Amino acid sequence: MAFPGTAPNGQPYSDKSKITAGLLQIFLGGLGIGRFYTGHTGMAVAQLLTCGGLGFWSLIDGILFLTSNDRTDKQGRVLRG
């Protein structure tokens, strides 16, 4: 499924949603699920091993996913949404 337009960085938008990533990170961030969703497996494993920074890291990360317009997926494409 293609999404029209290009992101501010000149690349096409990601097929991943920032809303989905943010909600996954807030509710399942202790397991790194939001980061696994966006393809950032190294960060996801770190969150998994630290239980999402005892919840603080995953909560802040989830809020940033929802409010920031420059979060990217593994390929460096800006998340749509």
UniProtKB/TrEMBL annotation:
- Protein name (record): TM2 domain-containing protein
Q: Which residues form the TM2 domain?
A: 15-63
Keyword set for this entry? Membrane, Transmembrane, Transmembrane helix
Residues crossing the lipid bilayer are 21-38, 44-67
Entry's localization field: Membrane
**Transmembrane helix listed as a keyword:** yes
Recorded hits in InterPro entries, A to Z, give: TM2, TM2D1-3-like
Q: How is this protein situated with respect to the membrane?
A: Multi-pass membrane protein
One GO CC term on file: membrane
